[in-house]
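QUALITY CONTROL LOG
STEP: pairwise intake check
CHECKER ROLE: data steward
CRITERIA: each record must contain a sequence immediately followed by its structure tokens, with no blank fields

ENTRY 1 OF 2
RESULT FIELD BELOW
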Amino acid sequence: MDTDLLYALAAFAFVSSITPGPNNMMLMASGANFGLRRTLPHMAGVALGFVAMVVLVGAGLIGLFDLWPTSYTVLKVVSVGYLLYLAWKIATAAAPKGDGQAGGRPFTFLQAALFQWVNPKAWTMALTAITVYAPARDLGGIILVAAIFGAVNLPSVGSWAYLGTQLRRFLGSAGRLRTFNITMALLLVASLYPVLWPYAPCARPLAPDNRQASCRVRRRRFRAGRQAR
């Protein structure tokens, strides 16, 4: 991989890791509810779980969508259902106990790592990274992509957890914390927009040319319909 492509990969890894998404919304909520120390396993699980995902996607899982097209729909349904469940759990989190600690418990390392497999943003990032930056799917290229993401992802997601801990001072009362949790739950649901949007599959990097053409036709019809209104 040449230097220019390496810089482009690092930029893609940073932008996709630092921007809002299910992981970052959940980490900010965890930081606000449980503090940074108790959120560290969650952070590590996100970073290392995604690295493992990139490696496995590059090693062959990327072809699953071509061999079994229905898997894309199955993944979307499972992801949306689980994220809605998590949003409900965040919104209904117990009020702080007498010692000031929020009820419930943060994600463990394993839970956070496994969550990547039902995180639609993580799938999009992994598929795009392998398709664009390791198209030959050689072991060296896959490991390099995974290593870049590993180096960039942890501080990126950690910044959201840290932001949540800084909000703890403001969220000292049960009412404020409940409002914050409901807001985070709504933002988590909002992060599903690219998945629920009717034309989100058009952005899938592995879509065949005829699928992309069909998507463009549907987009034009959709816009024409809106203008007709």
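ENTRY 2 OF 2
RESULT FIELD BELOW
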Amino acid sequence: MTVSTPAGPATTAAAALASRWAARADEADRAGTLPADDIVDLHASGYLRLPLPVDRGGLGAGLESVVQAQWNAAGGSAASALVAAMTLMLVGHARDVDAWADERERIFGLVERGALLNAVASEPALGSPSRGGLPATELRRDGGALTLHGHKTWGTGGEHLTHVLVLARDGERAVQVLVPNHAAGVRWERTWGDGLSLRASESHDVRFEGVAVAERDLLRLRPGPKVRNVWFTLLVAATYLGSAIAARDALVAYARERVPSALGHPIAVLPGFRRDLGELQVALHAARATLLAAARAWDERREEGDAEIAKLVCVDAANRVTEGALRLAGGAALGSDLSLGRHFRDARAGFGHPPSADAVYQRQGGALVEAAAVAQAGAAPASGVGRGGDDGADITS
């Protein structure tokens, strides 16, 4: 099924949102806090409703439209855009994947009523669940009572969230538990704020200390083929691509205005500068094209195979471009006036999101070897060869 909406309304809303976020972004980065006004603006803009079905008050936007909006929003603040992406990816994945058919109306209803959501999965010992293993966070059963106990890291959005979707152990299986963020027993630890990247994202630790849970809060997925959360993968990619685009734009503006006294004209006219700037632009163009193609493949055919490649390409390009912008701006980049330092640091966070580069390279290389062996044997390739791997219908993958 093709789900699409013109990119225009989505990107227009995102650009306006980015402008408001950008005015606060550098101060928020220095303070290590997510501005409450960024969240107010996020809700007022209707941005979180982009993937909601039209009959639920949304635009019914497809992934291709939303990734374009996301890189525009991230140009204002990657930290605030990443917070928004967590809700967008939950809504989009629940809408598009059959396994979530029984739970999607609940997710839709929360967002329709103004919820801000995140799925918290990583833990101190487990790390990212994308590499396997059961979480230490667990459901405990005492008669008919259920309580949640555990410690999660990377809770992007922190106390600004209204609900968290918690990956937890229920016996020997993993389950998703929907928890109101301000329920008794939910305790946030302010562990974030002075790290390398995304200082204003409030990606704090959160502890669940005997949080009472109802059976209806355990989200039930329908059995069937496991599906990677392509919305997560591509929205993450778009976020860091947005940092790189903002760094490029800041560099161009600076180069057009900077007139060294010994030169007598803007550095933007120098052939060497233009050549190096063009190299950055080519990297951005290739990354953007790869990202849009992967999003379109999902919208039109529910193909997930190129999503991990797009994420890798975009994150690599974002890091290359933001570093290149620092080099070309010279000493001016060391100050905060151009925001190039923030964009450079924020882009580094892209390496931490799954799938990791080594996992992508191993899967892609293994797929080539397997396909060659199958071709030599004259048989059809196995299902999934060259695709993005089988990380499950888990909405946090």
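INTAKE CHECK: passed for both entries
DESCRIPTIVE NOTE, ENTRY 2: The CA atoms of residues 262 and 270 lie 13 Å apart.
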